[in-house]
Structure formats: C-alpha cells, structure tokens
Design goal:
By secondary structure, the chain is mostly helical. It has 3 helices and no strands. The chain crosses the membrane at residues 16-42, 62-79.
Length: 86
C-alpha cells in the first residue's frame, strides 16, 4: 500500500450495507415510512447507470439555493415563534 497516494483506490461499500443500516435505524426509531424509501434511494444506484454530471457552476447554484432556503426557514421560525408580551 502506497501511503503517499491516498486516493489510489476507493473501495465501494458491500451491497445492501447502507440500505440495511437505514432499515435498522427505521426499525429502532419506529420510522419505517422514512427508512424504506431512503434505503431504496441509497441502493438503486447499484442497478441504474444514470449519473448526474454537475459542473462547478451547478454546485454554486445549488449552494446559493440552499442558503436562501435556510435563511427563509430562519426568518419563518423567527416570525412564527415570536410571542406578544403584555
């Protein structure tokens, strides 16, 4: 093993490991209705060859969108949690 080249080979996770972990989480928390779709979403890429090809500009736009959504949620939380003092 060459310690100088860390990214020489990335080993994929064993089949169904992530799905099983999410199903276990759903079983332990009682949130099956969230766990099953998440497990399916995590395991589907093993069977489909479709991949998104994002460019740096796309990542910047997604980051900007997430920032705006976060700020909007903070504003909504601030406005909805405000109490009227007498």
């Amino acid at each position: 093993m060459n310690k100088n080249n860390i990214n020489s080979e990335i080993t994929p996770t064993p089949p169904f490991l992530l799905g099983a972990a999410v199903i276990f989480w759903g079983w332990q928390t009682g949130l099956w209705f969230f766990a099953v779709p998440m497990a399916v979403i995590l395991e589907v890429p093993r069977f489909l060859k479709f991949r998104w090809d994002f460019q740096p500009l796309d990542f910047n736009r997604i980051s900007d969108l997430c920032t705006l959504l976060f700020l909007g949620m903070l504003a909504w939380l601030f406005i909805s949690r405000r109490t009227v003092s007498s």
